[in-house]
Known about the structure:
Elements: E1 2-4, E2 7-8, H1 11-20, E3 24-30, E4 35-36, H2 39-54, H3 60-71, E5 78-85, E6 101-108, E7 117-123, H4 137-148, E8 153-157, E9 163-166, E10 170-174, E11 180-183, H5 191-199, E12 202-205, H6 209-214, E13 217-222, E14 226-233, E15 236-237, H7 243-254, E16 258-259
Parallel strand pairs: 7-8, 7-14, 11-12
Antiparallel strand pairs: 1-2, 1-6, 3-5, 4-16, 5-6, 8-9, 10-11, 10-13, 13-14, 14-15
Amino acid sequence: MAxxxxxxxxxxxxxxxxxxxxxxxxxxxxxxxGRVRGLALHMERLERDCATVWGAGxxxxxxxEQVRQALGGRSGPCVVRVTVYDPTVDxxxxxxxxxxxxLVTVRAAGxxxxxxxxxxxxxxxxxLPEVKHTGLFGxxxxxxxxxxxxxxDALFVGADGRVSEGxxxxxxxxxxxxxxxxxxxxxxxxxxxxLLRERVGHQVAAVTxxxxxxxxxxxxxxxxxxxxxxxxxxxxxxxxxHPVLSxxxxxxxxxxGEEL
Length: 260
């Protein structure tokens, strides 16, 4: 299911997005009861990023209405992606595009507790990391490189040698004292990470690759998977079970969803 401003989308509607890839989005998991953890944060992200990317406001009430419409009578958990872009954008004159529209797509959701993943460190820094934009070439190229090397995904490392995030997830660690550590680095401010930070004690600190490999546990967070352990960083095995990791998972699952 795909709609643009509440109407079925056409190939012509999508052509500018495919050719320029200028836009921003949020993805959110809708549970079987039709509720979304962190819905307000997702809407705040769309509104904030719309101002940054397009210099325009966004009718959040209308966005929620379009999401409900796209879901229809769908049952079972799913992932809704809301993409904001301007179909009139021209590659030569992007500054003239200031009338963003809302594309809503729906897909089935995977398991909330997928198996641990093996991550390969890759030197990469995201463009405009504070915005969840559609420029995914860099992250996906890094992911592809990691997978071709026998890993599941890439863990980004900046030019300063510090760990930041994954391609579509934030990363956190549990140190030897059982403290949750989030990297101090320019990263996409993930909704799942924000929800956990509000509820679980933590610290934010610079984490080098060497320090990351010395942690007791590493984990990924995003709206589709919740909290997922990393079983390895490069050739260093990581523990995939820990009482604090269990607390993070339980805390996230216990967060009540907000009604669309």
